[in-house]
Amino acid sequence: MCLLCARAWADVRSRLAVPATAGVRLGVQTIGPILVLARTGGGYFMIARLDLPNAAIIAPVAMLAAGLVVTARVSFAHARLPEVPWVTLTAMVATYAAVIVWVLPALAQRKVVPDVARWVKGHAGDGVRVGTYRLNRWSNAFRFYVDQQTIHMDSIDEARTFFADPSPGYAVMTRQFLYELAGQGIPLQVEYERDGMWVTSGRALWRRREPPTRFVVVSRKTEP
Fold this sequence. Notes:
The protein is of the alpha/beta class. The chain has helices at residues 2-16, 22-29, 31-48, 58-77, 86-110, 113-123, 139-146, 156-164, 175-183; strands at 129-133, 151-153, 169-174, 188-196, 213-220. It folds into 2 domains: 2-109, no CATH class; 111-220, D-Maltodextrin-Binding Protein, domain 2, CATH 3.40.190. It has a 5-stranded mixed sheet with strand order 2-1-3-5-4, sandwiched between helices. The chain is elongated, with a radius of gyration of 26 Å.
């Protein structure tokens, strides 16, 4: 992508060195306004919808400033395009830095499945079976962090078979499904639990947050 963008930028500069077509001139003139519109909308969305630190506003502000500078240079100063678009690149780097510094940590803080998987990995020794029950979108993440063979269960019969085996085993699910299995007469006991987010998208950053989901690690309940 970087090479394609660099080639396109070089082509535009070379075409502007000679009488340019209307399409090329229009394309150059819309770079700044597009940056302004994109970051105006992004800044409003960040302030109104996202639960991020106030310092994160630096990203849309940098992009907005870049759009205004580019628009002024192209529309009013009629300056030749620079060999390297430093203004736009600076704004993009600021946006990328904001994502790394504020957005990703905020998402990771609410994702507890990796922590649950590490707990299972630390307690499941050789010969201990590991499974998930209707973990859906989190199944792959759990499988990655637990780093061992995992039995994925989607039906009550599969869960019944898993817990009927007298050998040691752990299964990860949400508390909702724990109640479901307990209602079917499957004896279970909770070994570990954490509150976290069920969604895996950017909705986890919304100010109006969804209620947390309780993730539990259960095993077959032993008779007293």
